[in-house]
Design goal:
This protein is α/β, with parallel strands linked by helices. It has twelve helices and 20 strands. It is an enzyme of class 3 (hydrolase).
Length: 475
């Protein structure tokens, strides 16, 4: 084991999480970070384009990705047989953000600007006056063919300036802005660009037969991306890039009991799920004695409804469970789903110290007080009495704290991937998540202790749930 790997073993769960966050500014980077963690624990990569029949075996560890932004990892119990079931922790890799438009080149009032789309339900006012960096993937076409490559501009290259109070006194009463015309980042001044020799403003007409990347995006931006991935700008044919707050994930509070970062929703759940899986397979004899499959599924596109080829509302998990029934009979898939259990892990709302009236008085979760079981009579969450009782039993057996949450009757409820997957697959499910403040802000806050709590619960689920489930008689 290398020195860096050894050092990683001694980091606290929150320190490892902070490292993960700072390496994961986009869903693509989050998946890459998860892959790196899985590789250290000898998980074998699979391809959906190939047969798994002679590859996946009892006691094996595997993962595969789809689109580079969704990842599924699983470990096969030593006593697994088709139909035995899959114990799953599901989460998502995406967060609300600003994505570059297919044609992002804009100018105005002497500035180079970049056109962006709003992705998800962000608190967009929090994106003003922030140092914005850029990350995602570029599509490269060269002698090797067409390929996708990660890219990250870590410098604060973009900025969305607020309007001065002197020019609009009403902003002290209510901050109103137009997402299309006011939520537009600036990259540079036109004068500086002209003097640089790059001249992004030349050939501004994008409606020509020339469909080159520099017709659609500022030359200075394309050249910066090309230099980072080591190709000629003409070899970049497209990209999927999002802006993010350059300020890193860090500890906060006078006792350093908080974690401040963008994308806590839902990269915290993603990290805790992967960490629990890799720790569970290292437990002596734990996997060899298991008769089920332990799985983590991290999906993209939850923030926009999950309806994509790599979202939770796709056939991805159905296809995966089908493929793991090799050697079974015609009903193995249906039996496997009936024997399976899903923990849908997504962040929860901690009670706000300045708006406590927004929570129901008996259901006001606090940070650093344990993971939250989320319940909704309208089925916005997938928790049932039976699934809640089973997870509570697991938590109590391992001295793991938990809290319960229902939304007030006079407020709308959010939702998660849980109801989608539960209804599509017929799998018993529960919704849980760590409590946090400022959800969907560019800068969110959660508790340090809750990182370890979630890891411990998911780890106990992977190691102990198969045995616990045999004591359950509910159909």
């Amino acid at each position: 084991m290398s020195d860096s790997n050894q050092n990683a073993q001694y980091l606290s769960p929150s320190d490892r999480f902070i490292e993960f966050m700072n390496a994961s500014p986009s869903p693509y980077h989050a998946v890459e970070s998860a892959k790196e963690r899985l590789k250290k624990y000898f998980f074998t990569p699979l391809s959906e384009k190939s047969s798994w029949e002679n590859t996946v075996k009892p006691n094996g560890r595997y993962y595969f990705t789809r689109n580079g932004s969704t990842i599924v990892a699983f470990a096969v119990g030593g006593k697994y047989k088709p139909g035995n079931g899959v114990n799953i922790v599901g989460a998502h890799t995406d967060s609300p953000c600003l994505k570059l438009k297919p044609i992002s080149k804009k100018t105005g009032a002497g500035y180079l600007k970049v056109g962006v789309q709003t992705y998800g339900g962000g608190l967009w006012h929090t994106w003003f006056d922030r140092n914005l960096a850029l990350a995602g993937v570029v599509m490269i076409e060269d002698a090797c063919g067409l390929r996708q490559q990660l890219v990250r501009i870590s410098d604060p290259i973009a900025y969305i300036p607020n309007l001065a109070i002197h020019l609009d006194r009403t902003q002290t009463d209510a901050f109103r802005f137009n997402n299309e015309t006011h939520l537009v980042p600036i990259l540079a001044t036109v004068a500086k660009d002209l003097n640089s020799g790059v001249c992004s403003t030349k050939n501004d007409d994008v409606n020509t037969l020339d469909d080159s990347i520099e017709k659609k995006h500022h030359t200075v931006l394309v050249e910066k991306l090309a230099s980072l991935v080591g190709v000629d700008p003409k070899h970049i044919v497209d990209f999927d890039l999002c802006l993010y707050d350059q300020n890193p994930c860090m500890l906060g509070g006078i006792y350093k009991e908080f974690i401040h970062s963008g994308r806590l929703d839902n990269l915290n759940s993603s990290f805790c799920a992967i960490e629990a899986l890799v720790q569970s397979v290292e437990e002596c004899q734990s996997l060899s004695d298991d008769d089920r499959i332990r799985m983590v599924a991290l999906f993209d596109n939850e923030e926009v409804g999950s309806r994509s080829a790599y979202g939770a509302d796709s056939s991805l998990l159905t296809d995966t469970i089908h493929r793991l029934q090799v050697g079974g009979d015609n009903s193995s898939y249906e039996i496997a789903c009936a024997n399976s259990f899903l923990i849908s892990a997504d962040m929860a709302h901690a009670v706000h110290p300045n708006y406590p009236e927004k929570h129901e008085e008996n259901h006001s979760p606090m940070m650093n007080k344990g993971i939250v079981i989320k319940i909704n009579a309208g089925q916005r969450y997938c928790t049932t009495t039976a699934t809640s009782a089973m997870i509570k039993m697991l938590a109590n057996n391992n001295n793991i704290c938990y809290q319960e949450f229902v939304v007030r009757n006079d407020m709308p409820s959010g939702s998660t991937i849980g109801p989608l997957m539960s209804s599509n697959l017929g799998i018993r499910s529960i919704d849980v998540g760590n409590p946090m403040l400022s959800m969907h802000s560019i800068r969110e806050t959660m508790g340090v202790d809750d990182v370890a709590t979630a890891i411990n619960l998911f780890k106990a689920f992977f190691i102990e749930f198969s045995k616990l489930d045999r004591r359950v008689t509910i159909d």
